[in-house]
Amino acid sequence: MRITPKTPEVRVPKLVGLMAMDARETAEAHGVLLAAPDRPDFHLTVVDYVVRQYPLPGAEVPRGAVVTVWFDFGEGEGGGGAGVREPRLPNPPRGGMQRELDAPGDAFEVIR
Question: Taking a C-beta distance cutoff of 8 angstroms, is the pair 7, 32 a contact?
């Protein structure tokens, strides 16, 4: 645990990407409290990752202010996946060297 100087205002740490346990420790070390509206059992949560926070990192807040973190994306925020995985028809053309270069001729062609 890191003890911060007793200043009236502190900067909000970056919590996005941290596991719940690490986010709690980081917040405590920086002098802010955490709240998680999507996790009523937040004090027991360990391995879920923070995906959003408010206020944003670097904002100055009074010591002991509450920083809200979320572990799930909200409606329309993107939450996951890499898109639709259905086959495209017609198939895309083959790429590579065959497409860029002409087929070579006879390597031992006699020149007269």
Answer: no
pLDDT in tens, the chain (112 residues): 555 566 789 999 999 999 999 999 999 999 999 999 988 888 888 888 999 999 999 999 999 999 999 987 666 665 555 556 666 676 666 665 555 555 667 666 666 6
Query: Would the CA dihedral through 55, 61, 63, 64 be positive or negative?
Result: negative
DSSP code, position 61 = E
* DSSP structure string for 34-57: EE-TT-TTGGG--SPBP-EEESPT
Burial of 70 (0-12, 13-18, 19+ CB in 10 A): middle
Sign of the torsion angle spanned by Cα atoms 50, 53, 56, 57: negative
Question: What distance in Å separates the CA atoms of residue 53 and residue 61, rounded to the nearest whole number?
Answer: 14
Residue for token pair 């990752």:
49
